[in-house]
Amino acid sequence: MSQSWTISTLAERLGGAWHGDDVAIDHVASLESAASGALAFLANPRFKPQMAQSAAAAVVLKAADAEGLTRPHIVAKDPHLFFARAAQLLHPARVAQGGVHPSATVSDAAQVDASAQIGPGVVVEAGARIAAGAILLANVYVGRDVIIGEGALLYPQVCVLDHCEIGARVILHPAAIIGADGFGNAWAGDHWEKIPQLGRVIIGDDVEIGACTTVDRGALEDTVIGQGARLDNLIQVAHNVEVGAHTAMAACVGIAGSTKIGARCQIGGAAMISGHLEIADGTVVLGGTLVAKTIHQSGVYSGSYPMQEHGDWLKNAAQLRHLNELVQRVKQLEKQLTALQVASGEEKQ
Amino acid sequence: MSQSWTISTLAERLGGAWHGDDVAIDHVASLESAASGALAFLANPRFKPQMAQSAAAAVVLKAADAEGLTRPHIVAKDPHLFFARAAQLLHPARVAQGGVHPSATVSDAAQVDASAQIGPGVVVEAGARIAAGAILLANVYVGRDVIIGEGALLYPQVCVLDHCEIGARVILHPAAIIGADGFGNAWAGDHWEKIPQLGRVIIGDDVEIGACTTVDRGALEDTVIGQGARLDNLIQVAHNVEVGAHTAMAACVGIAGSTKIGARCQIGGAAMISGHLEIADGTVVLGGTLVAKTIHQSGVYSGSYPMQEHGDWLKNAAQLRHLNELVQRVKQLEKQLTALQVASGEEKQ
Amino acid sequence: MSQSWTISTLAERLGGAWHGDDVAIDHVASLESAASGALAFLANPRFKPQMAQSAAAAVVLKAADAEGLTRPHIVAKDPHLFFARAAQLLHPARVAQGGVHPSATVSDAAQVDASAQIGPGVVVEAGARIAAGAILLANVYVGRDVIIGEGALLYPQVCVLDHCEIGARVILHPAAIIGADGFGNAWAGDHWEKIPQLGRVIIGDDVEIGACTTVDRGALEDTVIGQGARLDNLIQVAHNVEVGAHTAMAACVGIAGSTKIGARCQIGGAAMISGHLEIADGTVVLGGTLVAKTIHQSGVYSGSYPMQEHGDWLKNAAQLRHLNELVQRVKQLEKQLTALQVASGEEKQ
């Protein structure tokens, strides 16, 4: 089953130029830990000393860093991307072992492709459809009428609630919760009245969603995660949010209801995005930034308090509470100084 | 079983005035997606163009927005609240299918009402009591001596640990974790010593708690979530916190130990609240605010760094680290200017 | 089985001096709720009135606070630590009930010690080794080749994914997710290419990890949590992070990839730490701080926007966006004032 690789076959398959002996490669590793059979990569020329010490069978790197190199190596335009793809070939993803574990509970009214793998303790409700090659690991829950796309991989403890749709090749990490109710409440004078959440979550093909990330179902319309998007762990996506295709967000991000994030955005860790906003395609939001208004124009946006030694912070933060007064004092100084300058000028005349 | 509704029966049941043909209503929808049979609502007069285009069978709106309207509609004092209640009638909540799934593990020493629904893979430990009409979906865990109130709904992967009490009609979304140990450690010179967490979590009636939200058990006393409170996803409630009745908090909030939050507060997303504080009834904390001291007086509180284009942020954040020095420079300027003014005045005399 | 304790036996076992009647103690409690049989402790002299009212059988306190006290009490150097240890004795931790629940799914190719407790719905994959006295509560998932150390306690819904190692006496709270893929993606011009995550998570002995906390596996090398570390709930630990021994972090912290946190650090709730940094041993980071650069020197570090009444915040935050301009205005004033002072001095001469 497993294929054997050399630097020439890898370079041919993935697009690169190989040099030196055509050594066999059976895994990827870091420069530091690489041993025989390992392909490593040089991320940055300042790691050349580590490369010199490395026991890697071969190294992937840029042409500029390969000058004079005699050891087996592959020159690639984007060594990081080459390395990612080589790692995929050398460490292939899990393949479905078709069949339903006897401890799973699958409704007679669900459709499960014979090639799909349904693990122990999995529950699949009526009307759900599990496509070919999908893998549902232990204790996954799939609600009524849910669609799980071809080759999707659902790790243990994942929940996909009623009516949601998961695209092909989607990866949902453990305890990702897709389709819980959005946070919808109407104040009724002395208590909150629950607003039933009737929309779905629609997740496009090739999306990856991290552990303990929650994507709420829409209130009336759907919550949508575009094709190829990447969401890290512990992210909150509220009802009716739309995340554009190939947008990536690091862990601990929160997105409030009905916000539309464009395609190919990059959202840094712990950024918090208010509701009912729009963020332009290709926008970069740095970690820890609170986005409280629409971003019409792509660019890089920041907003986090700079860290300091605590004593300095105490002084500066205290003054920050009076910043507006300070501005008024400066205005006053400017006025008075101008008056003095005029007076002094008049005197001179 | 299902009841059929028209705008007259809805208006009569929920308190509103209906106008136009007494059309049949079988679901709610947004103005944009509404089709025949749908009730929609007008949230804001600026959406009147969408209303004009909408295929909704009827619309709920304010009297002021209904002038001259000839299509079937319902005038309500609070259209949002009317709509929420209509949605509850038209899309009724899950009803328990009494019985224990054969794959569940229920202790002989637990009491489960015959009308309660115990789903596949559920575990109920000794001494637990599950009241009438409660629904425990797949793989829920209920620890020893736990009480689950009448009509409570526990979604898949929820954990309620030993001795905790869950009120009537409470909704716990997937992977909500109730009663894990609080974070209690005593430093023992060269390591942390665990402080056993001996309190419980007590959750009042009609509370709703979001997916992956964690409410820790108390150290000695209990952690308490008051009746009707609403907690969104990914919220941390530490040991011995008290959350007042009908307080609502958006996702990603964290509350440190022993803090007491009043009734009817609204806490914005990602707000972080330090330990051992009190927050007055009716307080509003905006998203992203770090609350580091007691709030004695209700009001609206904020504290988040404003987002900027990254280049501007770099400059401003750098200066912020020297804000206190800037204040000193302004003080110095004020002194010197006063001296000059005095000197200049003296010269004139 | 259970041992009976008096203040003399507790003092002898844990190191303290007892005074008054040698009363029996069978549980710990707070001063307020203590009843007969309870040991309470005085955390702070300002709670002496509560102590006077307390029905506790005995109180632990400092020598300085015990002057003139006639009720039964124990004087300890560190009453909090004494109390923690007394609580451990009086409320002993769960002990494994050796055996595999019939609803569990344990691979024939896994090794499970006969004294380990494997609860209902638990899944243990091939190659995994579960050591003596370990407890795996309901629906825990243990992947291929995982090692679970002696006496470890895994609460319901915990996942430990393939190849990870969990030390002895480690406690993993519900839905803690150990070894999900790190967030590794390479941009391929029009989409993200997944970088297989091939490292492990290695968790040292006596570590405690909170509910819904996620610790990602390394990309090539391992993610490491040092012995005795304490992680609260809803924390994100990204791939290749190293957390030093006995470091404690409160809830909602996020640590980005490859950052190395020293030993005995204390990281406050909701602190966010960027990737590829180092933090010195013994560093204290206060809650809500964003750490964006290496901390070479231990100390106390802060960085959070101070909370204000919303109207004040609006004014100050607006000015903050122009802080650099304000600094330029002050510079200008200083220059002009100097010029005036020189001119005025010259006139006088």
Q: In words, what does this structure look like?
A:
The structure is a homotrimer of 349-residue chains. With 349 residues, the first copy, chain A, is of the alpha/beta class. Among the domains of chain A are: 5-90, Udp-n-acetylmuramoylalanyl-d-glutamate--2,6- Diaminopimelate Ligase, Chain: A, domain 1 (3-Layer(aba) Sandwich), CATH 3.40.1390.10; 311-348. Chain A has five helices and 40 strands. In chain A, strands 8-11-14-17-20-25-28-31-34-37-39 form an eleven-stranded parallel beta sheet, with no helix packed on it. Chains in contact: A-B, A-C, B-C. At the A-C interface, strand 4, helix 3, strand 40, helix 4 and helix 5 of A face strand 22, strand 23, strand 38, strand 39 and helix 4 of C. Strand 39 of chain A pairs antiparallel with strand 40 (308-309) of chain B, so a sheet runs across the interface.
CATH class of the domain at 5-90 in chain A: Alpha Beta
Structural class call of chain A reads alpha/beta
Arithmetic mean pLDDT of chain A: 96
Considering the protein shown, what is the CATH homologous superfamily of the domain at 5-90 in chain A? Answer: MurE/MurF, N-terminal domain
Strand elements of chain A, count: 40
Per the principal axes of the C-alpha atoms, what is the gross shape of chain A?
A: flat
Keywords (chains A, B, C): Acyltransferase, Coiled coil, Lipid A biosynthesis, Lipid biosynthesis, Lipid metabolism, Repeat, Transferase
Active site (chains A, B, C): 239
Family (chains A, B, C): Belongs to the transferase hexapeptide repeat family. LpxD subfamily.
Subunit structure (chains A, B, C): Homotrimer.
